[in-house]
Amino acid sequence: MTLRFGILVFPNVQQLDLTGPYEVLATAKGAEVELIWKDRNPVMSSTRLALNPTATFDDCPPLDVLCIPGGGGVNALLEDKAVLDFVWERAAQARYITSVCSGALVLGAAGLLKGKRGTTHWYAHDFLEEFGAIPVDARIVEDGKLITAGGVTSGIDFGLALVARLLGQAEAEIVQLSLEYAPAPPFRSGTPAEASSAAWRRQKTGSRLRGGFARKCSLAGAKSARRPRRRASAPETTEPNGENPHRST
User: Beta partners for 35?
Assistant: First the structure.
């Protein structure tokens, strides 16, 4: 049985948000992974790695799983009608709707986080409430068909957990072994709780993302709050339910 995964690729995506779960999912037996964008022109990540979409919004095949990675490019997506339309429509059809890092904010802007437990990167965690989500401080959070992962590297853990859910723990362990995924970082600085005060101050004051997220999340969250609550339940359905909240009438 072929499992088809779709990962949104967009300008200024955080490449490890995308390539971490991509590598895990693409290594699983019987898996096909599509990189999806509006067209097939190469897309530049936030660290200048060019990524080539393999499907567009118009010709993307049916998906078992849709994943939204994060990064600085998320700011533009929060008000991008074409993106939010696509995410909303595919959420109603896919078995799982997922995110890594600040990609969760795109799910929120699409109206898919209301009343749902979720997580994201620590710098964006407090924005989840703007979309009616219930923030959870965890590396992976599952709520029905909705699965959200924390910041950047958590996408690898998320990918393994998803493979285990869909194909069994044995297959996930084979993938983990083939990738030699046995993290042993040289420093304990991967979370705000572990980082030194000097590292925390430099990272927090040097962030160029947070101000943009705050403005866009406030606007997108307000729009999301005005949508009927039943429309936010798409991750719990198997067929489209009601009108698309982003479509013009």
Answer: 7
Q: How far apart are CA 138 and CA 213, in angstroms?
A: 21
What's the structural domain count of the chain?
1
| CATH code for the domain in which residue 199 is found | 3.40.50.880
Domain assignment of residue 26, given as a range? 3-182+189-229
- Which residue, 124, 97, 93, is CA-closest to 113? 97
Degrees to nearest 5, angle at CA 235 with 246 and 31: 110
Q: Identify whether 101 is a catalytic site residue.
A: yes
The verdict on residue 234 lying in a domain is: no
Alpha-carbon distances, residue 2 vs 26, 28, 63, 154 (angstroms):
11, 10, 10, 25
The predicted model scores a pTM of 0.86
Report H helices in 69-189: 74-77, 81-93, 103-109, 154-167, 169-178
Give the integer Cα–Cα distance in Å for 60 and 145: 20
Report yes or no on 83 lying in a domain.
yes
Lowest mean pLDDT among 86-100, 115-129, 225-239: 225-239
How far is it, in rounded angstroms, from Cα 208 to Cα 140? Answer: 25
Q: Round to whole Å and give the CA distance between 184 and 24.
A: 18
Cα–Cα nearest to 82, from 54, 58, 104, 64: 58
Q: What is the mean pLDDT of the chain?
A: 87
Tokens 């285990």 sit on residue: 164
The C-alpha atoms of residue 176 and residue 28 are separated, in whole angstroms, by 10
Q: Is 7 part of any domain?
A: yes
**Structural tokens at position 218:** 């406030």
Of 60, 67, 101, 217, catalytic: 101
What is the percent of the chain with per-residue pLDDT over 90, rounded to a whole number? Answer: 74
DSSP 40: S
